[in-house]
Structures are given as C-alpha cells and as structure tokens.
Design brief:
Layout (H helix, E strand, L loop, with lengths): L2 H12 L6 H13 L13 H14 L3 E5 L5 H11 L5 E4 L3 H4 L10 E4 L8 E5 L2 E3 L4 E5 L14 E7 L3 E2 L2 H9 L11 E4 L4 E2 L7 E2 L6 E7 L10
Parallel strand pairs: 1-12, 2-3, 2-4, 4-7, 5-8, 7-12
Antiparallel strand pairs: 5-6, 6-9, 10-11
Length: 231
Amino acid sequence: MSKEQILSAIRRGLKRGPLPADQRAMIEGRLATHPRHLIPARSRVPRPEQVALFVRNVEKEFGSVARLPGLRDVPGAIADYLAQQNLPSRFVLAPHEELTGLDWSAKPMLEFEARRAQGSDAVSVQHGFAGIAETGTLMLPSDPRRPTTLNILAETEIVVLRASRIVGAYEEAWDLLRDGRPEGFMPRNVMLVTGPSRSADIEQTLELGAHGPRRLHILLVDDDPAALPPA
C-alpha cells in the first residue's frame, strides 16, 4: 500500500478531506522548525566539561573509555584493550572509510573483516556517529558503513568516536543527524546505546550482556582542541 493510499484511508476514517491551506502551512512550519524540548542545565557547559560529563556517564553505566590523541592510535588501542580483556585478536570492523583507511600494519596480530556482524563474531568495532553528554549515550544510525548488527551480535563492542561529535543534549544529536540529509530522509534505524546491554528482570540481579554486548568500550579521539581537558 502506497503512502497516499494510507493517508487517504486515514482521511476517510476521520471523515474529512485534505487539510485547509492554513492548517497545512501551520503543520509544515512546525515540522520544519523542530521545536526544542527542555534541555537539562547539566549539558549546557563548556566543551571540556561536556566531554568529561560524557565520559563519567559512560563509566557510570558500566562502559569504559580510552582517550586517544588521533585516529592513527586506534589500532594500538584496540590491540591493548583486547589483550587486557584476554579477548581474541580477530574482530569484525565497520566498513567506514575512517576505519578501513587506517594503517593497521603496525599491529600485524590483529585480524579483521570489514562487513556486517554475524552470530559467531566475538568482537565488533563500530564507527560512532555522535555522543550525548547528558546521559553518556551513543547515537548509532543504520548506514551501509555502520551496520546495525555490529551493535547487537558481538559480546564485546568497541566504538571509535571523535570528541568533536560529542554534544550536550539529545536535541543537538538529532540536529547532527538531520544536517546535510535530503529533506524528509532519516535512517531506517537509530540506536541510542547507553552502556553495555544489561537486565535485572530475574530476582533483581544485574546481568550484563542480556540482550546485546556484555562489554562496551569507547575509543575517544581527541580531535577537538576546544574539548581537551585543562593542562
């Protein structure tokens, strides 16, 4: 059934035809302006404090963060984390040009395939779209270069995120998502991830990895001079 057929069926159910021009203009204006909701004061802070708030909230929700000087340090940081956690050196990598274009030759023990994740993959490395400081949340929209399966199937997920992509509030993350996209276009799926998957449904006992990754590790690339901590 086409979009117009669906809308026509709704109009019939409401017993009315198309909206009058003034009402249509009002609705279209509201959709175009994206009115803001209440934004918590804790996220309206200077850039270094915003990034620090993001890190604190990630760690509060059982995630971990390592700050890196640049993207070139990502392969070494992945190798270090896998060794610390006694994890295999093989992983599935998001087919994003920022990750596939890195020089991996300095860490020859690392083995990866750039593709969607499968049920047999133990570790995934995802490219982060944005981070939200007020809750320590990652915004991970579906994209051929950021397969959603990387966020779900592996027991350990590593996300590479630029500090310049950390915003204070959810509304600002949605602004980033809308920016530069064709009018009316949105990703098929947008995942908001706060820490590793967990549940306390059974006897109020916290269980990590209940519905997704048991570990969430963020490699935070300090590419924003304004967000660096004071010397």
